[in-house]
């Protein structure tokens, strides 16, 4: 499914009333095992303020790899990677990092360790909680992780927050439903661009998403196919997922 023109996603800005328009990108980078130059070109073309990364490098010299991705994308490392077992957060220099925390989740024997990377970022007078995640392939464990995600989001103590992740679940799944009942599903709220996030040529599925708390206004959300600078050959070469880009309006936080 295609929807609004990719030309109409709002740019990052700070409005006169202190609200901030923030561009949030969620991207599973498959441990940077593919074409890192293509990956960086896709990220730069999306002009994000925040990137929620999944499957960031987490083993030998993972910090060096994270720094490489951040620098080549014109961003800085904020949190996550091995310390969150894969999820990571990058940001532009526009963001002021107030605090970060990485959390390892309870693990089911025989399944991968999972975690959350979290941060609170400030854009002028607007403060935004951010959580990057990659949920389990197992239905029971995934649902429990969905519940823990909502708990952790609440524990951030911020009224305005976004979640970017690979949820390993489709919109008709129970974990996706759990989250969309509590949060705004970006695509479901304001569809823009392309819907499906699986690799081009694979069966069509939407398993990656950006969610937002109710006080955040979603201005557009979807896969940035056709966005100027986002080339199909780069999307094919960069990783086995397609990125999800959202523009959100975050209200100014009372001092």
Account of the 3D structure:
This protein has about 260 residues and is an alpha+beta fold. It has one domain: Endonuclease/exonuclease/phosphatase (Deoxyribonuclease I, Chain A, 4-Layer Sandwich). Helix content is about 25%, strand content about 30%. Strands 1, 2, 3, 4, 5, 12 and 13 form a seven-stranded mixed β-sheet that branches. Strands 6-7-8-9-11-10 form a six-stranded mixed β-sheet. A hairpin with a 7-residue loop joins strand 4 (about 75-80) and strand 5 (about 90). The protein starts with 12 loop residues before the first strand and ends in a 5-residue tail after the last strand. The mean pLDDT is about 95.
User: In percent, how much strand structure appears in the residues?
Assistant: 25-35%
Structural class: alpha+beta
Q: How many separate domains make up the residues? A: 1
User: What's the helix count?
Assistant: 6
Task: Give a count of the beta strands, DSSP E runs of length 2 or more.
Answer: 13
The CATH architecture name reads: 4-Layer Sandwich
**DSSP helix fraction:** 10-25%
């Amino acid at each position: 499914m295609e929807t609004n023109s990719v030309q109409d996603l709002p740019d990052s800005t700070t409005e006169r009333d202190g609200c901030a328009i923030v561009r949030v990108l969620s991207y599973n980078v498959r441990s940077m095992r593919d074409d890192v130059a293509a990956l960086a070109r896709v990220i730069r073309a999306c002009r994000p303020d925040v990137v929620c990364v999944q499957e960031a490098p987490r083993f030998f010299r993972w910090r060096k790899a994270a720094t490489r991705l951040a620098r080549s994308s014109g961003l800085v490392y904020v949190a996550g990677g091995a310390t969150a077992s894969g999820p990571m957060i990058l940001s532009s220099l526009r963001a002021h990092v107030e605090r970060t925390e990485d959390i390892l989740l309870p693990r089911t024997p025989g399944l991968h360790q999972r975690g959350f990377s979290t941060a609170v970022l400030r854009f002028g007078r607007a403060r935004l909680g951010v959580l990057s995640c990659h949920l389990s392939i197992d239905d029971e464990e995934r649902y429990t992780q969905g519940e823990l995600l909502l708990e952790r989001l609440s524990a951030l103590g911020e009224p305005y927050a976004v979640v970017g992740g690979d949820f390993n679940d489709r919109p008709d799944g129970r974990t996706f439903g759990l989250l969309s009942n509590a949060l705004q599903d970006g695509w479901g709220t304001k569809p823009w661009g392309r819907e499906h996030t699986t690799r081009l040529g694979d069966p069509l599925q939407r398993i990656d998403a950006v969610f937002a708390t109710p006080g955040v206004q979603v201005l557009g959300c979807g896969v940035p196919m056709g966005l100027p600078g986002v080339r199909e050959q780069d999307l094919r070469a960069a990783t086995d997922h397609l990125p999800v880009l959202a523009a959100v309006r975050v209200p100014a936080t009372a001092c």
